């Protein structure tokens, strides 16, 4: 379990608000010393870029590790 300091906890909350606004709530977010990691599935590559740009725009975010990938279509 993550042990977040108050600044990281606040960042995580703001990142989650952005994801909710974009209807991408199923993304795992971790924050450590201002570095945000995003892991999960998104509907398309455009959304991946949009999420990364919006998260980078949050005050206090030092770096974004974007490990989002496009959802695979059922075969």
Task: Supply database-style keywords.
about 80 residues; alpha+beta; Histidine-containing Protein, Chain: A; three-stranded mixed sheet; 3 strands; about 35% helix; BON_dom
Overall 3D shape: elongated
Describe the main β-sheet briefly: 3 strands, mixed
Separation of the first and last Cα atoms: 35 Å
Give the count of structural domains. 1
Question: How many E strands?
Answer: 3
Q: Beta-sheet strand percentage? A: 25-35%
Short structural summary:
The protein is of the alpha+beta class. 37% of the residues lie in helices and 28% in strands. It is built from 2 helices and 3 strands, in the order H-E-E-H-E.
Account of the 3D structure:
The protein has helices at 6-21, 45-56, and strands at residues 28-32, 35-42, 63-70. The chain has a three-stranded mixed beta sheet, with helices on one face. The protein has a single domain (6-70), classed as Histidine-containing Protein, Chain: A. It is built from two helices and three strands; from the N terminus they run αββαβ. The chain is elongated. InterPro entries: BON_dom. Pfam families: BON. This is BON domain-containing protein.
Secondary structure topology:
Layout: H1 6-21, E1 28-32, E2 35-42, H2 45-56, E3 63-70
Parallel strand pairs: 2-3
Antiparallel strand pairs: 1-2
């Amino acid at each position: 379990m993550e042990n977040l300091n108050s600044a990281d906890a606040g960042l995580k909350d703001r990142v989650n608000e952005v994801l909710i606004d974009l209807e991408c709530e199923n993304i795992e977010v971790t924050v450590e010393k201002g570095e945000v990691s995003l892991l999960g599935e998104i509907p398309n590559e455009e959304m991946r870029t949009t999420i990364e740009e919006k998260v980078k725009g949050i005050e206090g975010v030092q770096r974004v590790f974007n490990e989002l990938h496009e959802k695979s279509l059922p075969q």
